[in-house]
Write a structure and sequence with these properties.
- This protein has 220 residues and is mainly alpha-helical.
- Helix content is 28%, strand content 5%.
- Among the domains are: 36 residues, no CATH class; 41 residues, Wheat Germ Agglutinin (Isolectin 2), domain 1, CATH 3.30.60; 31 residues, no CATH class.
- The strands form 2 sheets. It has a two-stranded antiparallel ribbon.
């Protein structure tokens, strides 16, 4: 059985309807080149796509509730004191900003920003270190003078340590540049779990010939 080709020059696909292939038939129908119902919008000669509208007017009607674009179709956000405008309606008549706030469970009327009391992690202005901003400024100077070299191990330093273990003394002479590992061990020295349980490290227990290897040492 011989199949007919599309009537469009240069198209080798077989016909689907009205002498066109499927792709050219859809295009011709949208442009109104195929006899049939036209778009019901005035002065539009394109073929119907859905609900009596062509493809363009159908999409406008779906998004904005009207097949023709109008400047006064911009809707104001329903949140009081919000002057943002939106082109389409959503479930709550909120702008994108307040839709996101509702999604992340943030109060809609909360002032914009995340500093001090507006920050969700705000704890009443109580800091571990008094004059924390002063300490941060001196920290940059100490690290710059030390060329970001840890004064304990020689590695990369990105923290500072109080020499007198005081959280109130932020003088420059009281700071020393160090890495995170050294700073953590100075503040809270590491203790082997074997030493906590038996009073000796695992290596010492093997040297004392109490156990032959690490796997024989019981851990409770």
């Amino acid at each position: 059985m011989k199949t007919r080709k599309c009537s469009i020059d240069g198209c080798e696909r077989r016909t689907s309807a009205k002498g066109f292939c499927q792709s050219h038939y859809i295009k011709a129908k949208r442009l109104g080149e195929i006899p049939g119902p036209k778009c019901k919008v005035e002065n539009c000669n394109k073929g119907t796509y859905g609900k009596g509208f062509c493809h363009n007017h159908h999409e406008l009607n779906r998004r904005n509730g009207s097949p023709t674009y109008k400047k006064d179709m911009l809707i104001k956000c329903s949140v009081p004191e919000c002057n943002r405008l939106m082109t389409g309606r959503n479930r709550f008549d909120f702008c994108k900003f307040h839709v996101h706030r509702r999604y992340v469970s943030i109060e809609l009327n909360r002032p914009f920003g995340n500093k001090s009391e507006l920050n969700p992690n705000w704890k009443g202005g109580i800091a571990e270190y008094p004059d924390h901003s002063l300490m941060k400024r001196i920290r940059k100077e100490v690290l710059k003078e030390a060329n970001n070299i840890c004064q304990f191990c020689g590695g990369y330093a990105n923290e500072i340590h109080h020499k007198d273990q005081s959280k109130d003394n932020h003088s420059k002479d009281n700071f020393i540049a160090c890495c995170h590992k050294c700073n953590s061990q100075i503040r809270k020295p590491y203790t082997s779990k074997y030493k906590r349980l038996y009073g000796y490290t695992a290596k010492k227990l093997i040297e004392m010939k109490i156990f032959k290897n690490y796997y024989e040492i019981p851990i409770y």
